């Protein structure tokens, strides 16, 4: 029996507890199995039977009967939809525990329910978000190949990766460099082989400007930065093409020509994924020594506690993490 996944509870005032309980109900019979790192009482309040896990192996065996929880209690009460910095130490501790379990192999990977940055920042959290924190926690673990983190969004036959992530649109062009694009694309190519089983990955690199700059008439970033990066990638043996106009990169026929699209800024990568499958997209962190996925949505304070949050993306994230972990084991 493969090791279960470690699933962090996320922001306790958000939709995390609800969608975790719903995901367990959907997966309890066939798996993949997971153990929740978080507050057992908060999860029990969602109406699902819970069991405190003595070990992750015990959690896998009991998964069909009850939602297994590695109980790390909160020290402050929770009101659904009301974020609080008082929850930050527990939220951070849950991430640290899940990561440690994955690094030792007790967990096959980490799935993270959504967190909100503002309550963590108010408590002194020093990282932009989950991704950077996980990269720091795993920085000393060995990894064959180029190290990330690189953010990938995946749904169906579309995978997009981001060169710049949570940056103001006005700053994105100045942050694009040949080295940065090459790094993101190299991590992506290696991850497509290792984690997705694609022997000869094909990358399509998007332009920044309309019509990919129209030969320099609508911007020169394609000529001065993106095209040289594509040439450098091809020199490394990576099958990369571009810069491609973003407005013709994501229709069904175009998606058949590549395995991942390298995008220059946040919305260029996220809008097509969310248009294709708003509820089922998955966030995958590439270039880490552990497997990590998460749902492609936020904490949902506006719907927390109402019983209407959809678990589709979390279920997809659990399945994606299990599939990646299995490929790594097989390799």
Model description:
The model has no long low-confidence stretch (mean pLDDT 96). This protein has helices spanning 16-27, 40-44, 56-62, 88-104, 117-122, 130-137, 172-175, 178-196, 221-235, 252-255, 266-276, 312-330, and strands at residues 5-8, 34-38, 50-52, 67-71, 110-112, 150-155, 158-162, 202-206, 239-244, 260-263, 282-286, 292-295. The protein has 12 helices and 12 strands. The chain folds into 2 domains: 1-143 and 290-331, Isopropylmalate Dehydrogenase; 145-287, Isopropylmalate Dehydrogenase, CATH 3.40.718. It has 331 residues and is an alpha/beta fold. Helix 1 links the parallel strand 1 and strand 2. Strands 3-4-2-1-5-12-11-6-7-10-8-9 form a 12-stranded mixed β-sheet, sandwiched between helices. The radius of gyration is 20 Å and the shape is globular.
Mean pLDDT: 96
Shape: globular
**What's the CATH architecture of the largest domain?**
3-Layer(aba) Sandwich
What is the CA-CA span between the terminal residues? 17 Å
Number of domains: 2
- Secondary structure: number of strands: 12
């Amino acid at each position: 029996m493969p090791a279960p996944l470690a699933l962090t509870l996320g922001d306790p005032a958000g939709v995390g507890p609800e969608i975790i309980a719903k995901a367990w109900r959907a997966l309890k019979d066939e798996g993949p199995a997971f153990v929740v790192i978080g507050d057992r009482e908060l999860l029990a309040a969602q109406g699902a039977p819970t069991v405190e896990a003595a070990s992750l192996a015990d959690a896998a065996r009991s998964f069909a009967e009850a939602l297994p929880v590695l109980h790390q209690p909160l020290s402050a009460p929770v009101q659904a939809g009301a974020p609080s910095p008082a929850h930050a130490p527990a939220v951070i501790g849950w991430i640290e525990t899940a990561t440690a379990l994955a690094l030792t192999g007790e967990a096959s990977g980490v799935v993270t329910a959504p967190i909100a940055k503002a309550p963590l920042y108010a408590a002194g959290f020093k990282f932009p978000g989950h991704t950077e924190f996980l990269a720091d926690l795993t920085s000393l673990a060995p990894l064959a190949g180029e190290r990330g983190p690189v953010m990938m969004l995946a749904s169906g036959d579309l995978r997009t990766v981001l060169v710049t992530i949570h940056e103001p649109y006005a700053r994105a062009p100045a942050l694009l460099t040949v080295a940065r694009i090459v790094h993101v694309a190299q991590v992506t190519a290696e991850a497509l082989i290792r984690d997705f089983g694609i022997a000869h990955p094909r990358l399509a690199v998007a332009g920044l400007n309309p019509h990919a700059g129209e030969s320099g008439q609508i911007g020169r970033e394609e000529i001065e930065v993106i095209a040289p990066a594509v040439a450098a990638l091809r020199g490394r043996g990576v099958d990369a093409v571009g810069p491609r106009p973003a407005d013709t990169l994501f229709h069904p026929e175009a998606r058949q020509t590549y395995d991942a699209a390298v995008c220059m800024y946040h919305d260029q990568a996220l809008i097509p994924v969310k248009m294709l499958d708003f509820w089922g997209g998955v966030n995958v962190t590439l270039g880490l020594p552990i497997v990590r996925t998460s749902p492609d949505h936020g904490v949902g304070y506006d719907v927390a506690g109402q019983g209407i949050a959809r678990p589709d993306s979390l279920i997809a994230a659990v399945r994606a993490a299990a599939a990646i972990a299995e490929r790594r084991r097989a390799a």
